[in-house]
Amino acid sequence: MRFSSLSTVLALGALNAVASPTRPELAPRATPTVYLCGDSTMAKNGANDGDTDGWGQYFGTYSTVSVVNKAIGGRSARSYWNEGRFSDVASVVQSGDIVVIEFGHNDGGSPESNDNGRSDCPGAGTETCISDSTGETVYTFVFYVIQAAKLMTAKGATVILSSQTPNNLWETGSFSSAPPRFVGYQLTAQKALGTGVYFVDHYQAVANTYQKLGNSATNALYPNDHTHTSPEGASLSAQAFTQAIYQKLNGTTSLSDYIVSNPPTVY
Ligand SMILES: *[C@@H]1O[C@H](CO)[C@@H](O)[C@H](O)[C@H]1NC(C)=O
């Protein structure tokens, strides 16, 4: 259909000296760019220790969009916000693009006791804290994520709030998968935002993958610590994310149409 109508239009164009303006059916299909905002578990080269990698750029293998990995090690939702990194992404995002936001690994602790510049104020709403090291007002994880998502949707982008990856769930030799609070906080933020903002439980997808892999194979993915994986682990994390998006684990997302055909099944 598409090709025959294309050749018909081309043939008509060839008969006319002046081509008519591009017809809608001839316009190249707009392919969005996906921007990834996250921490070392998503960043290229992971913790930059030579052994570990983040999952972000591996996603490019399993999607039909161009992937721009803006993840950076050591960041929390708060510090990514405070450093202006969400604004930097918002300044290049175009209407129709997709922004994935995934934090949690560096968001724990309290800004009121030896604040490290990364801890969010505890709570899932409009609670505020005062940093005991800088005196700044610190907001909750949910607050920072909501502000970040709004920057992106104001530019016409859609946003996927992705829950953080798990740590090594076989660390003790038996499987244990209680999600940290930041997993639920992403869903809380998504519900507060609504239209144009989606949720995917990347934590659950990777947990399911590890459960299927078993004890020794999962432990082998963690060369240094219980948070940062080998490149193989990063690739599995990307595949679990892909499967979750493809199978609509927590509902349809704006990435659902941009997955390669027959993506791998890892859980
Ligand atoms: C996402 O969906 C899966 C499958 O239904 C479910 O197990 C998981 O709890 C959901 N995540 C959240 C945070 O609700």
TrEMBL record:
Record-linked SUPFAM superfamilies: SGNH hydrolase
Gene3D superfamilies in the record: SGNH hydrolase (3.40.50.1110)
Signal peptide: 1-19
Name the record gives this protein: Uncharacterized protein
This protein's record includes keyword Signal: yes
Similarity comment: Belongs to the 'GDSL' lipolytic enzyme family.
Protein source organism: Xylaria grammica
Keywords: Hydrolase, Signal
Pfam (any one): Lipase_GDSL
GO molecular function, one term: hydrolase activity, acting on ester bonds
